[in-house]
Specification:
Largest sheet: 2 strands, antiparallel
Structural class: mainly alpha
Shape: flat
Number of strands: 4
Strand order of the largest sheet: 1-2
Order of helices and strands: HEEHHEEH
Helix content: 55-70%
Number of helices: 4
Length: 138
């Protein structure tokens, strides 16, 4: 797929995201929540996170679709450090879930706590390897 095709798809996607943003705002304003759709119940609690996500995605698609500004090149060492930081935050989130006993439910499936231990080990390993590889580079 060529870059021109990707830019055109980003422009099309930005229109879809803008439509989703407007529809969510309108549904919330009119007070039509909660909505049952395909077995999922959407309540008014999801309006703000959805609008924030839509706005961020819209800005990214606009930036890519219309070449607004230049995207700076990221060096490999900087990328590894950033990846290590992201995996460290994920590790901390999994550990806090385990130690504080927080429940996590996705689509009526209660995620077991042992799965967070697996997530902790995987994310910690990835963070360690990211930092280790970044330290080897000069």
């Amino acid at each position: 797929m060529s870059n021109k095709t990707l830019h055109e798809l980003a422009k099309f996607g930005s229109g879809l995201v803008a439509g989703d943003f407007i529809a969510n705002a309108w549904i919330a304003y009119m007070g039509y929540y909660p909505i049952e759709l395909f077995g999922w119940t959407f309540t008014a609690d999801i309006v703000l996170p959805t609008l924030v996500f839509d706005a961020a995605l819209f800005l990214i698609l606009i930036h890519y679709g219309w070449h607004i500004g230049k995207i700076p090149a990221l060096r490999e060492r900087s990328y590894l450090i950033l990846a290590g930081l992201v995996f460290s935050v994920i590790t901390a989130a999994h550990l806090s879930r385990v130690f504080f006993g927080a429940d996590l439910v996705i689509a009526s499936w209660k995620i077991p706590h042992w799965l967070s231990w697996v997530g902790t080990m995987v994310a910690a390993y990835l963070a360690y390897m990211s930092f280790r590889l970044a330290a080897r580079m000069k």
